[in-house]
Design brief:
Blueprint lengths: L29 H6 L1 H16 L3 E2 L6 H11 L21 E2 L5 H15 L1
Protein name: DUF7731 domain-containing protein
InterPro entries: DUF7731
Pfam families: DUF7731
């Protein structure tokens, strides 16, 4: 799901949201990320994750809302523009964290579910 070419078709691989919950967008790539396909494709991934696993936890313990907050602030027109550090916005939670032994199956289910939504 996080690396699926049909979901992420226009966003550079190094800027994509991953299972770790990180957004590796350097400050100098902010305009490209926020004004190009990356923002929309990342929001699509978050919508799919949220629909299929409402309490999903990324490996860094971030929830979908935490990543959305980082996106909103990173793409804002404030002095925080370009700052996509998800860890700064992680809130306490008891969601579902994918374990390494079942991560592949859960992500496969997630990808299939999101394609059914299309």
């Amino acid at each position: 799901m996080f690396n699926d070419a049909q979901v992420y078709s226009g966003c550079e691989e190094e800027f994509r949201l991953n299972e770790s919950g990180n957004l590796n967008v350097p400050v100098e790539a902010t305009e490209l990320f926020c004004n190009g396909p990356c923002l929309a494709e990342t929001q699509f991934v978050l919508n799919c994750v949220d629909r299929v696993f409402s309490n999903f936890l990324f490996f860094n313990k971030a929830r979908v809302g935490d990543v959305r907050t980082a996106l909103n602030i990173g793409c804002s027109q404030t002095d925080q523009r370009g700052y996509f550090n998800v860890g700064r916005y992680i809130t306490g939670n008891n969601g579902q964290k994918l374990q390494s032994f079942n991560g592949f199956h859960a992500l496969t289910l997630l990808a299939g579910s999101c394609f059914l939504i299309l």
